[in-house]
Design a protein that fits this description.
This protein has helices at residues 2-39, 51-64, 83-92, 100-106, 123-134, 150-153, 165-188, 192-195; strands at 44-48, 76-78, 112-116, 138-144, 156-160. The chain has 197 residues and is α/β, with parallel strands linked by helices.
């Protein structure tokens, strides 16, 4: 058990460090996009499947409620949470359309869409990217490995360069937290010193 624990810890740290070395500028670009989006009165839409669905909800909650500081709520929505929409679209059309239809209904130019997919090949995330691009929504993807099909579809692709799903997902949570922290720093930096817990 000790060997498994040590190896897992080392691989998890390596996944984050490799992302930082290779793709940190893309994270800074996403921060710029989200800051501009919020400043202009627009919103962030996030989606994914399974663990990535949980990440989407987690990220939206950090923006709407708070991350490290008490500040005004920021407009982020997880497209994974409305069971009536998800099941009706799946039943009447296709599971592949569950996010795209919400983007078409809720998205507008100036918004940012972030699709989370460990493989980069989730059909419903790919369709949501296509829908977002058609209406002028900026598209970003958080992926792993080589980035999958999303690497060629989203405008901005943040890829954790690992083949190990658990460590990709662990890095995704860290990246999502850094997105929240850096956006807060840009928008409310003067509040940080007295409110970080």
């Amino acid at each position: 058990m000790e060997n498994i624990l040590r190896r897992s810890l080392a691989d998890s740290i390596a996944a984050k460090e490799d992302f930082y070395k290779i793709h940190k500028q893309k994270l800074f670009q996403l921060v710029d996009w989200v800051v501009d989006c919020f400043k202009s009165g627009n919103k962030l839409m996030v989606c994914g499947n399974g663990g990535s669905a949980a990440d989407a909800q987690h990220l939206a909650a950090e923006f709407v409620n708070r991350f490290l500081i008490n500040r005004m709520p920021l407009p982020a929505i997880a497209l994974t949470t409305d069971s009536s929409i998800l099941t009706s679209v799946s039943n009447d059309f296709s599971y592949d359309d569950i996010f795209a239809k919400q983007v078409e209904a809720l998205g507008k130019r100036g918004d940012v869409f972030l699709g989370i997919s460990t493989s980069g090949n989730s059909p419903n995330v790919l369709r949501a990217v296509e829908a977002a691009r058609k209406i002028g929504v900026r598209t970003a993807a958080l992926t792993g490995g080589s980035g999958g099909l999303l690497a060629a579809e989203a405008e901005l692709v943040l890829t954790v360069p690992s083949e190990k799903t658990p460590h990709i997902q662990e890095a995704h949570v860290w990246i999502e937290h850094m997105l929240c922290w850096l956006v807060d720093e840009r928008l409310f930096g003067s509040l940080q010193e007295n409110n970080v817990q």
